[in-house]
Design goal:
487 residues; mainly alpha; three-stranded parallel β-sheet; 19 helices; 3% strand
Length: 487
């Protein structure tokens, strides 16, 4: 009977993201998706080794060879610009991560901890219905963090079970995916002190810190960081606090898009209420209810803990695990806290496990009725955000624009001669929201990642692509104009 229930639970876990994010499987490429495919282009198989070089000659920032170059290289040669296989692969990596999360928590939580199975199931359930997954499924470039998460989870699981060599190898693989993996040794160190079982010698952790520090140093000194302003960290006192606030409410289910409608002093722009009244009020009410429910449950837990302390029966394991949950969330998001304008919900893919762990611990201590109320509020808030995201999520909007443009350009120009120049021009009838937003050509530039999208569309990297408002194309007979119509 127990095995049947577990089978049904994991069937639900498999089907839930399919139902919630079904539209994502047909979403097209956009922005960095095109860049990643372009970065994976090599003239011969003998050049694959260059993917793993720390040389800055290739001109790409950050060291992410596994998901960016190797994966993109294989998928491009197998499927070209058919997005479905890319989404399908990303979905199975996501499902595999859920399995790893469950396996890790089965090792992490003591068997004699009251409500262990309930907490494990709640962590998975909360993670599956989180609106953070909008970034996971609609933005293919989030694979870099998703795959790094896979290897980080394997690193931690193998380490706490004494498989140190395997753990080290998985750590190396994670370092080839994304900079978020730099937190892995910190996780190992904290878990060693907090879990208080199967403690390894601290010398065992030293190689993890060494290889992580070396990778970070080579990434910064050899490859270097991007020069764009949004990628430059801001080391001010208020920046991480402000970012932490937004990441926290995003992790509970508030839409990323809300950031565009809230000014200084948390003043809500009335435009969002006029444009999306149903979504806004549904989210506001459920978010307020969820926060109230969580605060009241936390106060109740603190009072119960105080009483148990007086009686000498404090549940120390609960607070130890709650500390690990908060640590997981804060450490997982720490890499992104100092960036001013580069804030996205898909950065929460890994740290969201900590949020769900903390929520699961709190909910597990509530009565059945109170637990259901909190779960319903969390589900309604996140479901509402997911549905709103189908209309407003930036990655989905860019992918729709990219699909529209590639279809129209290919229809207008089935082929181009080698070395042709394509000039994408503004639609004069389009009313731009502001100078930063630009005209239709600038939006096309962002959606198609400059020349990358069109070069990949024609599989011709000799093509030169120009956009109105940027550089003017040279005067030649091989200039092909295309007006980007208002969208």
């Amino acid at each position: 009977m127990l095995a049947k229930k577990k089978y049904l639970f994991f069937l639900m876990v498999f089907l839930t993201p399919v139902l919630l994010f079904l539209k994502s499987f047909s979403a097209y490429f956009s922005q960095d998706d095109f860049f990643r495919l372009r970065a994976s282009q090599i003239s011969s198989l003998t050049e694959i080794g260059k993917f793993f070089s720390f040389s800055a000659i290739r001109g790409y920032a950050f060291y992410r060879p596994l998901p960016r170059e190797v994966f993109s290289f294989m998928m491009w040669h197998l499927f070209g610009l058919n997005p479905f296989p890319y989404h399908l692969f990303q979905f199975f990596i996501y499902i595999f991560n859920l399995f790893l999360i469950d396996k890790l928590f089965s090792k992490l939580i003591d068997n004699n901890f009251k409500g262990k199975e309930k907490v494990r199931c709640l962590v998975i359930f909360l993670y599956v219905i989180s609106a953070v997954n909008l970034g996971t499924f609609y933005y293919l470039s989030s694979l870099e963090i998703l795959l790094a998460m896979t290897f980080i989870l394997l690193t931690i699981t193998c380490f706490i079970t004494g498989k140190y060599l395997k753990s080290f190898l998985f750590c190396l693989l994670s370092l080839m995916c994304h900079e978020i993996s730099y937190v892995s040794p910190v996780f190992l160190l904290v878990f060693t002190f907090v879990l208080r079982k199967n403690r390894p010698n601290l010398k065992t952790i030293l190689p993890f810190f060494t290889v992580t520090f070396l990778t970070a140093w080579l990434n910064i000194s050899q490859i270097r960081l991007p020069s764009q302003k949004e990628y430059l960290p801001e080391f001010s006192f208020l920046r991480p606090i402000n970012n932490l606030f937004w990441y926290f409410i995003w992790s509970l289910g508030i839409p990323e898009h809300m950031l565009d409608f809230v000014g200084h002093g948390l003043k809500i722009n009335p435009k969002i209420i006029r444009q999306y009244p149903l979504y806004f009020w549904t989210m506001s009410l459920t978010f307020s209810g969820l926060i109230a429910g969580l605060i009241s449950s936390l106060i109740s837990l603190l009072m119960n803990s105080f009483v148990k302390t007086l009686k000498g029966s404090t549940d120390k394991k609960f607070w130890r695990y709650l500390f690990l949950a908060v640590f997981w969330y804060l450490t997982g998001i720490s890499f992104f806290l100092f960036f001013g304008s580069h804030r996205f919900i898909y950065y929460l893919i890994f740290s969201q496990v900590g949020t769900c762990f903390a929520l699961a611990l709190l909910i597990s201590r509530l009565s059945l009725k109170s637990s259901l109320i909190v779960l319903i509020l969390f589900f309604v808030l996140n479901f509402n955000t997911i549905k709103w995201g189908e209309k407003t999520y930036w990655a989905l909007g860019r992918s729709r624009l990219a699909k529209k443009l590639t279809t129209e350009i290919k229809t207008a120009y089935p082929t181009f001669p080698k070395g042709a120049i394509i000039w994408l021009k503004d639609d004069p009838s389009y009313l731009s929201p502001g100078p930063d937003w630009g005209g239709t050509a600038k939006q096309a530039y962002i959606a198609l990642s400059g020349s990358d999208g069109i070069q990949l569309l024609y599989n011709d990297f000799s093509l030169k692509v120009y956009y109105e408002g940027d550089l003017l194309p040279p005067k030649t007979d091989q200039v092909f104009e295309f007006k980007v119509k208002a969208f």
